[in-house]
Each structure stands twice: as C-alpha cells, then as structure tokens.
From TrEMBL:
Biological processes, Gene Ontology terms: DNA biosynthetic process
Gene3D superfamilies: Palm domain of DNA polymerase (3.90.1600.10)
Taxonomic superkingdom: Eukaryota
Organism phylogeny: Eukaryota, Metazoa, Ecdysozoa, Arthropoda, Hexapoda
UniProt protein name: DNA-directed DNA polymerase
InterPro entries documented for this protein: DNA/RNA_pol_sf, DNA_pol_palm_dom_sf
C-alpha cells in the first residue's frame, strides 16, 4: 500500500560515465556504495540529504485495521449466528473468506443474508441475482457464483487449490510461476498434504545482474505441506493458532 511506504529508506542512484564525477560522488558524506557496470559506466548509491514525508501513513494503517474489523464482524456477527457449527473456516485473506458449510440449500441460506452480499455477478436467471449492492463497499461477493466449490486443499499461507462443481479449478502458490501452477491439480496438493511430500518445480527465467540480462534455469521448492504459521493437528487437516488452549490436550 503506497500510503505505508517508508520514504526514509529511499536512496539516490546515479549512473556516471566520467571519472572525475565519480570521484566527486564517492567523496560525499551521503555515499553508500558503488557498482562498476563497464569500462565507462559506474553506478553510485547515496543517501538522500532530505526526506519529504508527504504520505499519510496513518491512512494506510487505519485502512488495514478497518478491513480486519469488517472481516471479523461479518464472520462472528453474521455468518456464525447463521450457520453455527455447520460452518468451518478453511482460509482467509485481507478481504476474503473461504468457508466449508454443511447445509441442504446454500443459496436459500444466502438469500436470508442477501443484504450483506453483492450478488450482481450471479446469472440473471438465478434468484439470488440482485444489483442493489453492486460494487458497494463492505459487501461480500461470491467468487464462484452458482458454481459451488466442491474440493479444497490448503497447504500453507498463500498455497491452496480448489475445484468447483462445474470443473473450474484454481491453483495458488506464492513464488511459483503460473507456467508451473497450471500443470498442477487439487490431487497433487492433496498428495503433498497427506504424504508429507515436498514438490520441486523447474522453470526458465530472465534475471538482471549488473544491468546484464541472462536466461537462468531455476529449481526450487514448489508445494510444501510444512506450515510454520499454524499448529497442525494429528488428522493433518485441521489447524489451530499457536497459543490456542486446545493445543496441549491434542
């Protein structure tokens, strides 16, 4: 978020082609380091002599806090009273919830809380379709309208996969290129979870070093069932937050 940017960390970077100019920059008290790119090209990194604090940091902080408050209020004040123990939280992000709900008719239940939803993306023939809350702030939208998610595997933060009733699938893995993700499936994520198997991926990338571009073959960890941010229960499916009172008994 731009408003949370720390401008005190900004630095000046200057490309120099003259030896005398390079010596002048290096003698300055703001000098940090240099890099030689060629016989007649040097880059000099230096600190700024002044910093203009014109970004409202408080605005970014408050925005994130309000977003968290909206998520918590919706989950505990709207969803929890509605679905009770028939609902389980699978995953959450800054502005989204992925829930496992046991019910006879999900869309009938959603109709009861339609005033909290933006259902404008539902097919016009669907009885939940309504443009009243279209693009209204604070209203929740179904990511797969009229196409419920039937399979979900969450390995760790920002690493999950799901499939819908109409065979739409989505694979997510932070740091894994799309070319590798599109070759994966929910079954591969599931196998990684229950077999405790780490999957490696290989891909070609273009990297820049000293202002020179080159192709590079990269091999890195892809899917990993090791989640160091949550306490994994013996069933290898459910987790608890560290510090939860149930951890000792489990």
């Amino acid at each position: 978020m731009r408003t949370l940017m720390n401008k005190r960390r900004h630095k000046n970077f200057t490309l120099i082609t003259n030896e005398n100019s390079a010596a002048t920059y290096i003698r300055k008290p703001t000098f940090k380091q240099f890099a030689i790119f060629g016989e007649d090209l040097v880059g000099v990194l230096s600190m700024k002599t002044s910093v203009l604090l014109d970004s409202p940091i408080y605005a970014g902080m408050v925005t994130l806090d309000i977003a968290k408050l909206i998520m918590y209020e919706y989950y505990y004040n709207v969803l929890k009273p509605k679905f009770g123990n028939n609902m389980k939280l699978c995953m959450t992000d800054t502005d989204s919830l992925l829930l496992h709900i046991k019910t006879d008719d999900l869309y009938c239940d959603l109709f009861d809380i339609i005033d909290t939803l933006d259902t404008s993306n539902y097919p016009s023939s669907h009885y939940l379709h309504d443009n009243t809350n279209k693009k209204m702030l604070g209203k929740f939208k179904d990511e797969s309208p009229a196409n419920p998610i039937t399979k979900f595997v969450g390995l760790r933060a920002k690493m999950y996969a799901f499939e819908t009733k109409q065979n739409y699938s989505k694979n997510v893995g932070k740091g894994i290129p799309y070319s590798c993700l599109k070759e994966m499936s929910v079954s591969i994520y599931k196998n990684s979870l229950f077999s405790e198997k780490i999957t490696h991926v290989e891909f070609d990338t273009i990297e820049s070093k000293n202002h020179e571009l080159r192709m590079k073959r990269v091999r890195k960890v892809g899917l990993s069932p090791f989640d160091d941010k949550r306490f994994l229960l013996p069933d290898k499916v459910n987790t608890l937050a560290y510090g939860h009172y149930k951890i000792q008994s489990s």
